[in-house]
Amino acid sequence: VGNSQVLTCTRKSNVTMVTWKINPKVGGPCTLGYRADQNKTDRTNCSDSMNWKFRPDRDPALEIRQVGIAHEGNYTCEVVATDGNFHDVYYLTVLVPPRLTLYCDDHGNPVCEAAAGKPAAQVLWVLGSNFTPEEEGHDNGTVTVLSRLTAYGTNLTNTTCIVSHPAGNQSKSIAC
Fold this sequence. Notes:
The protein is mainly β. It is built from no helices and 15 strands.
């Protein structure tokens, strides 16, 4: 999320037409088209964040700037050339790194929260085994994972929470 993504498309000489067909999971479809005989590009229902990376007659790659969850979905590029039609198909999955918060609850137990990640993060404790993670799903497809480490009267001088996620791992330590 937030980065730019470039999807490549088959490069051919003697291109007649190039079409990107985009079907996001959220919202309606959009298309980007190029006709060589008129040297003309066209767009239908595409946001400004999606455009040709270069001139489509030279390189038909698609660039998505500031990728967001709404960009997730199917992307198909069709190149029509004198030697045939060529398709490249992608499914774009958007990863959202969770926000890590570590604090002590009212009973002196450490609580680790991995907020609004996509997919859900895994929360683990170093030197702790008595915990139960709770997950809360959000409308935008992200998930918050909350894990409370119960020590039952044991003084935890320094506890470390580890959040494992495909967008990157994080850890924080706290003394409760």
